[in-house]
Structures are given as structure tokens and as C-alpha cells.
Amino acid sequence: MRTQISTKDQVHTRPSPGLDQFFSTLATHPTALLDLAGVSQANLMFITGLGHRIYSDDIVRALEMAFGEGDDFFANQGDPLRMEQFMNSTLDFQVNAFGGALLWDTLQFLAPNLLQQTLDQLFHILEPGSSLLAYFHSEERSPTAPVYSYRIVDQKTVQLISKNKRRQAQFFNNRAIEKLFQRFSSVKFFLSRDHLREVIVKR
Amino acid sequence: MSTPPIRMPEPYNDLTRGTASLGKSVLVKGQILSREDLTIDGEVEGTVELQDSRLTVGPNGKVTANIKAREVVVLGTVNGNLDVSDKIDIRKEARVVGDIKSARVVIEDGAYFKGSVDIIKVEPPRAPKQQPAPPPPAPPVAQAAVAPTGPNDHKR
Predict the structure, then answer these.
(1) A40, B116: Cβ pair inside 8 Å?
(2) Helix extents (H) in A6-154
């Protein structure tokens, strides 16, 4: 299911217009931000340096703990009991608890039913008018996608550190992404030169 | 005749400066209060409070407790909230689930952390106020001046 990645691919720094937009539209008063790609010193320093509070979790690791790492990873995501345990342990927050969320590319590792529950819960815990940043891999033919750690270098730049590769639950084109966030008030796409499509979604 | 200065015996000095430790086969359920540095390599369930001291959770340590200390270093597992006045250092093999409040946080790559981080702003120590020079002696007056008072006196 997971494949190790060669060392030469491990670190890649790129501009991120989506990240820039995310922080530009963030509330000026201190707020709480959700970061779902695992903790890093860089993100911690950047976000708390702006005066915000960070809530960090590694959702891919949480998925592996809840549904296993084997071939039945996606099949297990359909188990109602495991789904409930995952939702209770991962995104169990109060209504409007966060002023923004950095989802990075985590959504593409969720099977459709669990993905829908996750988005419903994100809608519930994000303040109205707040934004979330999501990345989607745009290589339709590739059966697997790299799993990255995302490190904020500055407001416009992000560093991607490959951890391994994992099969995606499904491929998302622009239409599929719009449909995914139909409950939210707007979806904005950003062009990029590499294999990542950036999206800012307004709650 | 002068008396020689009193010297603490060496072992006593070591004891007062030393670090208390709980070994990996120790299980403690309850409240731990310490005025000296503490290393936990065993299992603790309850609360841990170190006044102005450092707590180290060793690689075998498993602490299920709210922690209050000056400094915390985690190499093992912590489930609980950490209220740290100076610095928390989460090493790469560590696993921490809980909310952190600290002036400084260092998290190594590879560490697992789930929770919120609040950075406490440390106020720089205030410079002591200089005492104003005593006023020169006032010339004697026949009647003391009375300052006007009113509801807007606090406004400038």
C-alpha cells in the first residue's frame, strides 16, 4: 500500500498562491487554526508568530491507526464503527471552533463516505466566512500520490517533504472538487506549474 | 580565634542538586509534587507538578497526566495537557496528545503531536522605577493652594 520514496525527491520548495490567499484573508484578531498534515516546527513558529493558536493533527497517521495500513485501508474506511471512532478521535470540536484550516492534500486519502463525513464536520467546526486550504494531486494517471509533510517557509512559500507514497481514494478534477465543496460558499482554484492543484474554500 | 567556614558534605550537595527518577518498572498513580528535576521512565497516572524544575519523560516513560513545570523534555509518551513556563522539547520518537501552553516549543521531525499550542508571551522584567529627586524646599506661603476637583479630573 505504501511505498518508500527515493531521497532525491524528498524536499521540494514551491510558491503557494493558495497559502498566500489563506493568510491574507485570515482574521486580524488572534484565532485558532487547524493544521492536519502533522506537526512541524516551521508551521508552529509561523502561525504562533502571527499571534494565532495552532491545533495540529496528522490525519494520514490517524487514518492508518484507525483503518490499518494494508490493502484493506479503503475498505476499512467503510466500517461504520471504525468511522465513528475515527471521527470522534480526530475532528471532535465545538461549532465554529476554528478561524481557518490547512488541510493540505489529506482529503484525497479518504474514501467517499468518510470524506463526506469529514467535510460535514469541517463545515460544522469552521467559523462562517473562514477559509480552508486544500491541495489535490493533478496526475490522473498515477495510481499513487506522494504523502508530504508541508512546511510553511513564509506566507507565499511552502516546502514539501516526501514521506512515502500512498494510493489515492479517488482522482479529483475541477468539477469533482466544486461538487465536493458544494455546501461551502465558494471555491477558488489556483494555477500551479507542478502536480498540485491548490484550492481555497470559503465556509 | 576564628571558626572555619561550614561546608556541606559532598553527598548532601549532590542530593540537593540531583535529579529524582522513576525507573521503567515503576508505576505511580496519584499526584507527584517535586521541587527538583525529575526523570520519569516508568508509568505515571495522575498529575505531575514540578515547581521551577525540569521534567524529562524518558523513552520508556508513559505519563497520563496533566503536567506543570518550568521545562519539559519528552522522549516517550504523554497523554495530558502541559503547562510549561519556559520550554517544552518534544523529541523525534515522542508521542504527545494534549494541549500545550509554553513560552517556547521545540518539536523534532518525526514526533507525533496532537493538540493545540498556545505560546505564552513572557513579559521582559521591568526596569526599577527611578525615585524622583526630592523637590526643592518650597518658599513659605500664607495659604495652601487648593487644586480644583471635578468629574473630568482624570482626563488629560
Answers:
(1) no
(2) 17-24, 41-49, 59-67, 73-76, 80-90, 112-125
Q: Which of A171, A163, A172 is nearest to A69 (CA)?
A: A163
Q: Is the dihedral of CA A123, A127, A129, A135 positive or negative?
A: negative
pLDDT digits (tens), chain B, 156 positions: 455 554 544 444 444 457 899 999 999 999 999 999 999 999 999 999 998 899 999 999 999 999 999 999 999 999 999 999 999 999 999 999 999 999 999 999 889 999 999 988 777 666 666 665 566 655 544 443 333 333 333 333
B119 touching chain A per CB within 8 A: yes
Q: Are B100 and B72 in contact (CB under 8 A)?
A: no
- Vertex A62 angle, CA A83 and A151, to 5°: 135
Grid cell at residue B62: 508513559
> Do the beta carbons of residue B54 and residue B71 sit within 8 Å?
yes
The partner residues of A3 in beta bridges, in order of sequence, read A165
Chain A residues contacting B via beta carbons under 8 Å: 32, 38-41, 44, 48, 53-58, 61-62, 149
Residues on chain A touching B111 (C-beta within 8 angstroms): 39
Q: What CA–CA distance (Å, rounded) separates A56 from A175? A: 30
Q: Does B46 touch chain A (CB under 8 A)?
A: no
CA distance B123 to B140: 46
The Cα–Cα gap between A176 and A187 comes to 12
**Interface confidence (ipTM) of the complex:** 0.83
Q: Which chain A residues are within 8 Å of B78, Cβ to Cβ?
A: none
Nearest CA in chain A to B113: A39
Q: Residues of A with CB below 8 A from B92's CB?
A: none
Q: Which residues of A124-159 are buried (b: 16+ CB within 10 A; e: fewer)?
A: ebbbeebbbbbbbbbeeeeebbbbbbbbbeeebebb
Instruction: Inform me whether the C-beta atom of residue B105 falls under 8 Å from chain A C-beta atoms.
Output: yes
**Min distance A112 CA to chain B CA atoms (Å):** 25
Which residues from chain B sit within 8 angstroms of residue A61, using beta carbons? Answer: 112
